[in-house]
Design a protein that fits this description.
It contains no helices and ten strands. The protein is an all-beta fold. The chain has one domain: SH3 type barrels (Roll). It starts with 7 loop residues before the first strand and ends in a 7-residue tail after the last strand. The relative contact order is 0.21.
């Protein structure tokens, strides 16, 4: 998966199309990512023993990583990602438009 925890992403499809957010968690086996403030749904929580918050709760749900694109701060747009091997042997992700390290 190209997307990692802490990346800034833009939503390409769905009800939140065009919104930007930061990735909180990645689920590589399912191909999904949890983005703060994106794909917010209302869940109904029944009162149970040990549950403090009950009623209607809003929470972000994971969305398909194919509907997300990395956001380049230098370009100001969503971009495709390339890879570059640095002199010390580290492999990094770079923006295909400007060549800046993401």
């Amino acid at each position: 998966m190209i997307i990692k925890k802490g990346d800034n992403v833009v939503v390409l499809k769905g009800k939140d199309k065009g919104k930007k957010g930061k990735v909180e968690r990645v689920f590589p086996d399912a191909g999904k990512a949890l983005v703060a403030g994106i794909n917010v749904v209302t869940k109904h929580q029944k009162p149970k023993q040990g549950v403090k918050q009950v009623g209607r709760l809003t929470k972000s749900m994971p969305m398909n990583a194919a509907n997300l694109a990395l956001f380049c701060d230098k370009c100001g747009k969503h971009v495709r990602v390339g890879y570059k091997i640095l002199a010390n042997g580290d492999k990094t992700r770079v923006c295909k438009k400007c060549g800046d390290i993401i």
